Amino acid sequence: MPWLRLLAVAAVTLVVNLPFGFWRAGLRRFSPAWFLAVHAPVPLIVGLRLAAGLGWGLSTFPILVGAFFGGQLLGGRIRASRK
């Protein structure tokens, strides 16, 4: 069931990006630290994608990119709600 693996990787992607989004929301936009907060989880997600055997199918990109940015957005909203 490749769709089940895709959903599992998407869920992990979202959860991994929560702390990075939380961190990013407290930084000056486009600063070096901001870029690090956005791009640091990418190698982990790529490794997870390869370990799950998803490969680089074009159909998986919208789901995983959405999970990536969803985690960043939710992490930022959590930080904003704590103020």
Q: How would you portray this structure in words?
A:
- With 83 residues, this protein is mainly α.
- The protein contains four helices and no strands.
- It has helices at residues 2-25, 32-39, 42-51, 61-81.
- The termini are far apart.
Describe the structure using short key phrases.
4 helices, mainly alpha, 83 residues, single chain, elongated
Q: What's the topology here?
A:
Elements: H1 2-25, H2 32-39, H3 42-51, H4 61-81
Helix pairs in contact: 1-2, 1-4
Brief overview:
The chain has 83 residues and is an all-alpha fold. 76% of the residues lie in helices and 0% in strands. The chain has helices spanning 2-25, 32-39, 42-51, 61-81.
Number of strands: 0
Counting helices, strands and paired strands, the structural category is mainly alpha
| Sequence of secondary-structure elements | HHHH
Quote the average pLDDT: 95
Radius of gyration, in Å, reads: 13 Å
* Percentage of residues in helical conformation: over 70%
How large is the share of residues in beta strands? under 5%
> Mind describing the biggest β-sheet?
none
Contiguous uncertain segments of 5+ residues: none
